[in-house]
Amino acid sequence: MSWQLLVGLSILLFSINGLLHRVLMKDSKSDPNAQAFMFTTIVGLLGLVIVLFQGGLKSHISLVQLPYFFLIASFTTIGSIFAFKGFKYIEASEHTILLTSSKLWSLIGAVVFLGETLTLRKLVAGVMIVSGVMIAEWRKHKFVVNIGGLYVLLAAASYATGEILSFYILRNFDSTAFLVYCSFLSAIIILVLNPNILSKLSFYTKPSNLANIVTVSVNDTLASLFLFNAYQLGRNALQIGPLMATQTIATVVLALVFLRETDNIPQKILGSLIAVIGTILIII
After folding, report:
1. Apex 277 CA angle, 22 and 3, nearest 5
2. For the chain, how big is the Rg over CA atoms in Å?
3. Interior CA angle at 58 toward 74 and 220, to 5°?
4. Using CA atoms, how far apart are residues 97 and 276, in angstroms rounded to an integer?
5. In the 3-class helix/strand/coil scheme, how is the chain assigned residue by residue?
């Protein structure tokens, strides 16, 4: 399977998750820390099931790699909590635009830390993809960066840092084992920092909420494995990072088809076309 197809499948699943996460976090009884704990724990358990079917862990953390895993788990955890907090304060469209900035940080990280070569075509393509997302989701004449906006910007920086560190480790590490280790480490970090979240997990005893978080976790497990394997095949974070930003465009299309969100159609079409052109430039 080509790295392009794996990225495409990852984008589709992450896009569906974008809608489902919004549904959960809109509930006044939901808690960002509890959501992050449930999410990472279920992903870790699903990854463990896959590992068992594969005959056991194919990679083990060395002493040299251990600090990297703690950093990856920490940055990913911080990113998830801040992103979920952001949903409480700002509109989904503004949230999406601010979070997309993580892909620009990932592009810089791929050059500085992974030693990948930045060509003019890749740079133009990356900028076009991010610009297309912003055009498709723009709703205001200006941003008012309140506490919600600050949460999302911090989430973007955290996600980008975790992503680059992940790609560095994945050069010589089994992707499924990596997912299991990072997920359980993240869950432990959340629980240690917020032991009172256990009392808030009753939110997920409601069948619809439980079904939602399980679906999100299954999608994320598969999407993450597709993404990790895509990098191991292509070793091209410079291309994969910006391409992952197109999940926002996919979310727009899904919302149009399934949720009948028909507002600002010309704007969404224009942004989508720009992002698609950027996508073509980055994969050819």
Report:
1. 70
2. 18
3. 45
4. 17
5. CCHHHHHHHHHHHHHHHHHHHHHHHCCCCCCHHHHHHHHHHHHHHHHHHHHHHCCCCCCCCCCCCHHHHHHHHHHHHHHHHHHHHHHHHCCHHHHHHHHHCHHHHHHHHHHHCCCCCCCHHHHHHHHHHHHHHHHHHCCCCCCCCCHHHHHHHHHHHHHHHHHHHHHHHHHHCCHHHHHHHHHHHHHHHHHHHCHHHHHHHHHHHCHHHHHHHHHHHHHHHHHHHHHHHHHHHHCCHHHHHHHHCCHHHHHHHHHHHHCCCCCCHHHHHHHHHHHHHHHHHHHC
Q: What is the spatial distance between Cα 157 and Cα 78, in angstroms, rounded to a whole number?
A: 10
Could you report how far apart the first and last alpha carbons of the chain are, in Å? 17
Instruction: Please report, in tens digits, the pLDDT of each residue of the chain (284 residues total).
Output: 788 899 889 988 887 877 776 666 666 677 878 888 888 999 999 999 999 998 888 889 999 999 999 999 999 888 888 887 887 776 665 666 677 777 778 878 888 888 888 788 878 877 887 787 777 666 655 545 578 778 888 998 899 899 899 999 998 899 999 999 999 999 999 888 888 888 888 888 888 888 888 988 899 899 999 999 999 988 887 778 777 777 777 766 776 676 566 667 777 777 777 877 877 777 66
Is residue 11 within 8 Å of 129, Cβ to Cβ?
no
| Assigned token pair, 159 | 């996600």
Instruction: Give the start-to-end residue ranges of the domains of the chain.
Output: 3-119+143-245
